[in-house]
Structure formats: C-alpha cells, structure tokens
Amino acid sequence: MASPLTTPLAVSLGDPAGIGPEVIAKCWDNRSAFNLPVFAAIGDPRSVAAVWDGPIELISDPREADSAFDLGLPLIQLASAEADTPGHPSVAGAHCSLDALELAVGLARSSSAAAVVTGPVAKEQLYAIGFQHPGQTEFVAERCGISPGNVAMMLAGPTLRTVPVTTHLKLTDISQKLTSALIESRGRAALRGLQRNFGIPEPRLAVSGLNPHAGEGGMLGAEEQEIIAPAIAALAAEGWRVSGPHPADTMFHARARAAYDAALCMYHDQALIPVKALHFEDSVNVTLGLPIVRTAPDHGTAFDIAGQDRADPRPMAAAIRMAAENAAYRADSA
Ligand SMILES: NC(=O)C1=CN([C@@H]2O[C@H](COP(=O)(O)OP(=O)(O)OC[C@H]3O[C@@H](n4cnc5c(N)ncnc54)[C@H](O)[C@@H]3O)[C@@H](O)[C@H]2O)C=CC1
Ligand SMILES: NCC(=O)COP(=O)(O)O
C-alpha cells in the first residue's frame, strides 16, 4: 500500500464563472464518501460563495489545510478584480484562473503541496488575455522547465488510458505536425509515466494509426508507413513493449483494451472520445513527464450549467484521488 502524503494537495478553482468552484466545494462536502485526502483550494472565495453556502476556511499556506480541513473548505485567497457571475466568464476571471494555476504549480514545485489538481479553465478566455500555451498541460510543463514535447497528456479512466500525440491543434494541421520524433517523445513520456505514476513495471503501449484502417497499406494515407511505424520501431528498439499502428476504430473495444496499458493516439479527439464515452464520470487528465504530479478532471468549464447546482463532482473527486495516488507512488519509488 502506498504511503500517506506528508503535505496537502493544491487545487486551483479554474475559471471562477465555470463549474470548478462548485465541484471543488462539493468534493469537500463529500470528502469522506469520496475518500479524499486533505487539499487546499486556490482562487477567489467569492466564486465559491456564489454557488455554495458551506464553510470556507481562509488559509495562507497549504500546510494549514491539515488543521482547517474538518472545519471548512480550506482556501488560499486570490484577489480578483471583480466578482464573476456563474456562467458569464470575464477577462478578470481569466486572469484569476491563470493566477491560481501559477500559484498551485509553484506550491508543488517548492514541495509545499504534494501535487497539483487544476480546475477547468476556458481556453478561449485565456487565449483572449494573451495566454500563449495550447492548454494548462503545456503551461505547467514550461513552469517546470520541461519541453512541451516531452510531456504527455493522459486521459485515464478505470478501463482505458489514452495519450494524444498532438493536443490542441486544428484538424487541418495535424498531419503536418505529426513527426516520428514527437510520437517517440510522447510514447516515452507515456511509458515512463505508467511506470512512475501508476506503478506498472513493464507497461504496454498500443499506438494508433492516423488514417482509416491505419492507412490500408498506404492506399489511404502514408503517415502510418512513413512516420508512425518508424517511431514504433524506435521505441521497441529501446526495449519498450509497443504495438501498432492499429486502426483507431477497432482498438478500444473491451478485448482490445485488455492487451495494453495505454493507447497512444495521433490527435485530441481520437484519444479523448473513447475515454469520455466510457468514463465521463471518473476519468482524469494527468500530465506525465513532469517533476511534479498534476491532474485535472476530464471536463471543461461547463458554463451552460454553472451556478445551477447541476455539476457532478465525481470527475473532480477522481482527479484529487488520482493526484494523491500518483504522488504516493512517486514518493515510495523515489
Ligand atoms: N482541463 C480543462 O481545463 C478543460 C477545459 N476545457 C474548456 O472548457 C470550455 C468548455 O468546453 P466544452 O467542450 O463545452 O466541454 P465541457 O466539459 O465544459 O462541457 C461539455 C458538456 O458536458 C457537461 N458537463 C461537463 N462537466 C460536467 C459535470 N462535472 N457535471 C455535469 N455536466 C458536465 C456540460 O454541461 C456540457 O453540456 C472550453 O473553453 C474548453 O477550452 C475543456 C476541457 C478540459
Ligand atoms: N480537452 C482536454 C483539455 O482541454 C485539457 O487541456 P489542459 O488544459 O489540461 O492542457
């Protein structure tokens, strides 16, 4: 059994107008039923108070969360220029979500927090305030001094884990951005992450094709033969257990899933659709290849239901539990 954590987790609230504040407050409410470790929320307390009437314990350091956790939701307060209305994102809210992310990562990097769990942010809002990264994954990587190509975004559910090689790209740009080197580096990050974060000593990676039927022997596209197969061969030559390229439409049924520990997919939707279809309530976005542990729920800001008490906290609870489990594995094997 993994050792208990010595410091609480840092949980950024995400966009204050999204469902992050609500699901995090509901996680604290249900902390025993969800079997959650001690955590400290980070963000604007007004965004929590707008959607939840439970107790909030303002703290200034995650370690204070240990004694505050039984009294209320421990929260490190960030001043936002204005209070947001649930469902109505603003520029001030986007800045607040970025500040919370920045602080949470800093706390984990300085070992003041055992891991980071990030609440959902709206990429459109962040891009509008000049955010230069495709998503939080690449931002956290940069803050940790890791090249974005050397981390992997894994979506992990109870019966399926997937990793997209390309993340937030236009569909029309994917083929051009897909290189053997990128497939290899994502594959390595995924395989090492399965060992380090999930305690799987000899992980098996199944690699998808890009085109229908994995290119149909070259008749439906050349990427499989020219880019993907050489990357698989290079990873196999390093001793990793890698298979493919597999046709993406037939690699996610139950019997196929039993043959691998993670699927490396060529683009965002190829990886995320099967996990969300199978496990929307409890799949977790985990960034592999970092010196810290970072997880997030699989969903976004859900502005359409924010402030209506309709947000399901189970994905956030799964993200908090997985962060604690991953951090404990890493501490035990360090
Ligand atoms: N990790 C992150 O920060 C992520 C952020 N996003 C961002 O979120 C924004 C909205 O993205 P969408 O594609 O609309 O995805 P979304 O996940 O926010 O919403 C999709 C649908 O699922 C529902 N839903 C989502 N989470 C739910 C929950 N916990 N309980 C009940 N219903 C839930 C929503 O109401 C909506 O109908 C985008 O700006 C996107 O960039 C999207 C995915 C992940
Ligand atoms: N669709 C997944 C997603 O948007 C998560 O991205 P990130 O912000 O965690 O990089």
TrEMBL record:
Other observations noted: The active site is located at the dimer interface.
Pfam families: PdxA
Keywords of this entry: Cobalt, Cytoplasm, Magnesium, Metal-binding, NAD, NADP, Oxidoreductase, Pyridoxine biosynthesis, Zinc
Catalytic activity annotation: 4-(phosphooxy)-L-threonine + NAD(+) = 3-amino-2-oxopropyl phosphate + CO2 + NADH
InterPro entries registered for this protein in UniProt: PdxA, PdxA_fam
Binding of substrate, residues: T137, K276, N285, R294
Cofactor: Zn(2+); Mg(2+); Co(2+)
Subcellular location: Cytoplasm
Associated pathway: Cofactor biosynthesis; pyridoxine 5'-phosphate biosynthesis; pyridoxine 5'-phosphate from D-erythrose 4-phosphate: step 4/5
Protein family according to the UniProt entry: Belongs to the PdxA family.
Function of the molecule: Catalyzes the NAD(P)-dependent oxidation of 4-(phosphooxy)-L-threonine (HTP) into 2-amino-3-oxo-4-(phosphooxy)butyric acid which spontaneously decarboxylates to form 3-amino-2-oxopropyl phosphate (AHAP).
Organism: Sphingomonas hankyongi
Cofactor note: Binds 1 divalent metal cation per subunit. Can use ions such as Zn(2+), Mg(2+) or Co(2+).
EC number(s) recorded for this UniProt protein: 1.1.1.262
Quaternary organization: Homodimer.
Identification of the protein by name: 4-hydroxythreonine-4-phosphate dehydrogenase
Keyword Zinc: yes
